[in-house]
């Protein structure tokens, strides 16, 4: 099998992008003549090949509806705003192309994965399963143990310590034997570099027990283990595998890593197959495999909670009142529940399990975030799915609960299919080792490099980001975001990577960023990602104008 790749099927230059009208745009490739549909909506663009799923007919615009195209063969209709066929109703969804707008030159590219459905290569017939042959044991957050035959596989082990510096802490208490289970696994899959999936405190403990345990990651352009050498964690068997290629564990068990359509440089998802039975784990992917996923898998797992960024909780000024934030968060969570419900309905897995969302802002200094950042409930999502899809078995896991796939497939109503942990088992954490991890952050504050202001120029030149018309003001603060006495307060102009005393007179975008000094200096000292600041709720931001700077 050849590796799955993302290829450009159509490119529009900036002047062509500017001529796109609101609604439906029909475009043809100037060289190969293939046709595409681009839908320009209020908030986003969507695109697909101009080809009906029925018998490959060409679409034309429907004069009755500005969002709909009509097939010239049999008059099937496609709503391009939703990518759902409306005639016949409840039939198909159209396979989408990824729309990528360039920040630098204003061009637009339509991307397609090739091959689109790599799991169909070398198909295997589903064989009969026996009780206990495939089990899933929920550990905590995104960590699940899969037992398939005589092999054990662990997903995304975060068992101890915080994620994103000090912003996220485990909501669930892992089973008491979780670390032993991890060290005895036959292989580990880590989906991406974010620290609630790639947990260095967890891997540090693992490396002391079994440094040569096989770990598998996808071949993302931003390497998952980019920080491994500097971390001091001794893991000697990290395997980077190509996308869309079956990896054989034994004669019955294999897995395949797929890329995310929105963040192919970062995120991945996973298909595991044993004796022809498939388990789909989409983890945090925004658009896993660009929206093309296997239908009717035995088990599907995905995230559900929302709230996994600093927006809008850490923003202030302008529209960012408490009432605006509350309304925005409520609406976003509702949209996420609706999207997940629709995704599960369209894929029709036999069993669905929401996971990868069980974190909390436990530190007392983040009380405001915890009270504001209301997340979705896994039980609410499962209730929504059961209402729309009563034929799908849903599982709301707690640490130590076990799903027996053979029993669940044989009789979904059987109570023996899911084993809950014994009565009295601790489910939720009520204490965290704050001091242990915050002392490490605090130690960075007094590092020698920060005694001289020249570190600022050195650091930003090392980072190398420039040529962008943005000026930021960075203010070091205490935990409560009040300016640190004697802390640094400086400007960076990214257009020419200068460090002015005042904002330039030219028109420019501006952001004021207040960073907790212990996190900021720890990030700088170790060359880590600013995700620890933003996703970890360790800064407060205002911007003028109020636009998102993706770069």
UniProtKB/TrEMBL annotation:
Specify the superkingdom.
Answer: Eukaryota
Q: Which reaction does it catalyse?
A: CMP-N-acetyl-beta-neuraminate + 2 Fe(II)-[cytochrome b5] + O2 + 2 H(+) = CMP-N-glycoloyl-beta-neuraminate + 2 Fe(III)-[cytochrome b5] + H2O
> A Gene Ontology molecular-function term?
CMP-N-acetylneuraminate monooxygenase activity
E.C. designation(s): 1.14.18.2
Enzyme class, top EC level, equals oxidoreductase
Recorded GO CC terms: cytoplasm
Tell me which positions the record assigns to the signal sequence. Answer: none
Q: Which UniProt keywords apply?
A: 2Fe-2S, Iron, Iron-sulfur, Metal-binding
The UniProt record lists the Rieske domain at 12-108
Instruction: Give the record's pathway.
Output: Amino-sugar metabolism; N-acetylneuraminate metabolism
A GO BP entry: N-acetylneuraminate metabolic process
Instruction: Give a short account of what the protein does.
Output: Sialic acids are components of carbohydrate chains of glycoconjugates and are involved in cell-cell recognition and cell-pathogen interactions. Catalyzes the conversion of CMP-N-acetylneuraminic acid (CMP-Neu5Ac) into its hydroxylated derivative CMP-N-glycolylneuraminic acid (CMP-Neu5Gc), a sialic acid abundantly expressed at the surface of many cells.
Hey, which family's this protein in?
Belongs to the CMP-Neu5Ac hydroxylase family.
> What PANTHER family does the database record attribute to this sequence?
CYTIDINE MONOPHOSPHATE-N-ACETYLNEURAMINIC ACID HYDROXYLASE, INACTIVE CYTIDINE MONOPHOSPHATE-N-ACETYLNEURAMINIC ACID HYDROXYLASE
What is the official name of this protein in its record? Answer: Cytidine monophosphate-N-acetylneuraminic acid hydroxylase
Q: Which organism is it from?
A: Sinocyclocheilus grahami
